[in-house]
Amino acid sequence: MRLELLVLGSGREVGRAAIAIKRDSDNQYLLFDYGINFDLDDKPVMPLPIQPNKIRAIFISHAHLDHVGAAPIFYVSSTPAIYSTLLTALLSKIMIADMLRLSGYYLPFEYLELDTMINNIKNISYGDTIEIDSALVKVFNAGHIPGSAMFRVEFKDGGSVLYTGDVNTIDTRVTKGAQLSGLEADLLIMESTYGLYDHPSRNRVEELFIETVKSVVEDGGIVLIPAFSLGRAQEILAILADRMPHSNVYYDGMARDILELFLQFKEYVNQYQLLEKAMRIFTAVKGSDMRKQICKENGSIIVTPAGMLKGGPAQYYVKRLYSNPKNAIILVSYQAPQTPGRKLLTEGVLEDGGPRVKAKVFWFDFSSHAGSSNLVEIVKSIKNLKKVVLVHGGEDSAYTLGYKIKEATGIDFEVPKTGDNLVLEF
Ligand SMILES: [Zn+2]
Ligand SMILES: [Zn+2]
After folding, report:
1. Which of 42, 69, 151, 164 meets the CB 3.0–4.6 Å disulfide criterion with 36?
2. Sign, Cα dihedral of 272, 274, 279, 285
3. Quick one: 2-197+368-425 is in which CATH superfamily?
4. What global pTM score does this model have?
5. What is the tens place of the pLDDT at every residue in 33-66?
């Protein structure tokens, strides 16, 4: 089989996932994800364009904007077939609507196109197989966030491809690790975000995190935990519900809407009872009076977006909490360069020339991406594999991982750039 692979985004870069594949003999592509990134000025960066009439069907792996954020563009003038889990569809609607609210001016589509897209999504579940002409597409759990999927394409006359999207192999409070048993594919298109590193064990990270939160609370300080609204915030709430159920925990912003949505999808949430408990015993923040009050309540814990302190209610809280050395700001996700979160970690300020932060600052590695060794394990677990294409990772990260894979398995790899058109033969 000769397979054509268009890298429309995520080539030697994290995010902006957009990969189109077709056999030589086909006229149209299957498109996996169509995500958006943001540049240093916070302007959206679209993937490379592809004409809607070149697309046979779109598969969305999960609802993070770097995988679904650009997809409404196809619904300006047409309605290509699109598939995702129901939870991914509902989360995508929340995430993209929020992006339109904040950056709509710079985007080449509006709410109308978002609505058209969401209404066109055909819902799929783990284990389903969808027939598209001569291809069968099977859906697997990717373990990254609730509802996230990997797709395996099998062409009826031979040849198969597995697209991982973002993937995690370990169980967390909110997700069960990716389903890897019994997988077979000729070609693997895999993310490589953490090709350079392994994460510490989740149990150890949780342990240190809880110790830290407890020590601040016992000392009478307030703990601010800026967390991504989709996935991380709910994981932190589940940990707190399990380990510190008697503390005063508040959650704010979109973290609240998404927690409510997760609770409607028991099949996609690992420790569902803990999320239910978090919802029952912790307090959702409603309105600015309540926010003001919480900032005076010694010993309280606030979980809120944005995860890098860029926007969201976290911005409000941090301004009121940063100057008291008894308080703590606990970062629980990746901090991109130039964000207030990164500046806080590296320079002890929230913005250039800003006042020094006196509150204690911590960072914990709660990643939802597989670490380097786990990515190699994924490759090892796939039967009859002939080639690996590494995307969604920086150049160093993808190449380092590629050589590790080659050494461990003998399988060849490619690290395409965005804009490359690979022709692969099996
Ligand atoms: Zn991603
Ligand atoms: Zn993701």
Report:
1. 69
2. negative
3. Ribonuclease Z/Hydroxyacylglutathione hydrolase-like (3.60.15.10)
4. 0.97
5. 999 999 988 899 999 999 999 999 999 999 999 9
